[in-house]
Design goal:
By secondary structure, this protein is an alpha/beta fold. Helices cover 36% and strands 17% of the residues. It contains 9 helices and 8 strands. A 4-stranded parallel sheet has the order 1-8-5-2. Strands 3-4 form a two-stranded antiparallel ribbon. Strand 6 and strand 7 form a beta hairpin. Helix 1 runs parallel beside helix 2. The termini are close together.
C-alpha cells in the first residue's frame, strides 16, 4: 500500500504522510521517491541551479540535473527551514524546489516551524520581509512527512505493546494542526 501511495503521489505531485512504528520502512520509502519522479526539464534544471548557486551550494560550474531531496533534522531552525536571515538566503523548502522535502519525525518539529510551512506549501513560494525589502524564493516541492503513531511508536503494533497513556497519545496527535494536515493529500 505504501509503495502504491508513493506512485500516486509522484504521478500527481501530492504531499504524503507516512505513519507507522519504528522500522516499518517510512524513511526508506521516502528516500526512494525522488528516483520515481520524472526527470527535470531544462528550465527546471536552470531554476534549481540558480537556487543552489545563490545558496553557495553549487559544486563547481555544474548544472543541477537531479531533483533535489532535502531532509532537515527536526532541530533545524525556522530560518533553516523557511529561509531568511539578515541577508535573506533560501531555506530547506526552497532548496527542495522541484524536488522533495522530507520531514522525518514530523511531530518532533516545533509547532511554530510546522505552521510556517502552511503558506509556502499552499502558494509554492516563500516571501521574506526585512527592513531593507522583501525577497521571494520559489518553493514548489513535494512534502513527504513521516511519524510514529504515538510517542513510543507502537500504538496498534501487533509485535510490541504501546507504553503511552491516552493523554500522551492525544498530545502527540495534536502537535500537527488541522490546517497543516489539510495540505497533505495522502
Amino acid at each position: 500500500q505504501a509503495k502504491r501511495a508513493l506512485e500516486i503521489a509522484a504521478a500527481g505531485s501530492h504531499n504524503i504522510l507516512f505513519k507507522g512504528p519504528p522500522g516499518a520502512g517510512k524513511t526508506l520509502l521516502a528516500r526512494t521517491l525522488a528516483s520515481i519522479l520524472p526527470r527535470l526539464t531544462f528550465s527546471e534544471m536552470i531554476e534549481v541551479t540558480k537556487i543552489y548557486s545563490i545558496a553557495g551550494l553549487l559544486e563547481k560550474e555544474t548544472v543541477m540535473n537531479q531533483r533535489p531531496f532535502r531532509s532537515p533534522h527536526h532541530t533545524t531552525s525556522l530560518v533553516g527551514l523557511i529561509g531568511g536571515g539578515t541577508h535573506p538566503r533560501p531555506g530547506e523548502i526552497t532548496l527542495a524546489h522541484r524536488g522533495v522535502l522530507f520531514l522525518d519525525e514530523f511531530p518532533e518539529f516545533p509547532r511554530i516551524i510546522l505552521e510556517s510551512l502552511r503558506q509556502p506549501i499552499e502558494d509554492a513560494i516563500v516571501s521574506i520581509s526585512r527592513a531593507k525589502g522583501k525577497t521571494t524564493f520559489p518553493a514548489k516541492c513535494m512534502l513527504i512527512a513521516s511519524q510514529n503513531p504515538c510517542p513510543c511508536g507502537y500504538l496498534g503494533d501487533k509485535s510490541q505493546n504501546c507504553v503511552c497513556n491516552p493523554l500522551q497519545i492525544n498530545r502527540y496527535k495534536k502537535k500537527i494542526s488541522g490546517p497543516l494536515l489539510d495540505r497533505i493529500d495522502i
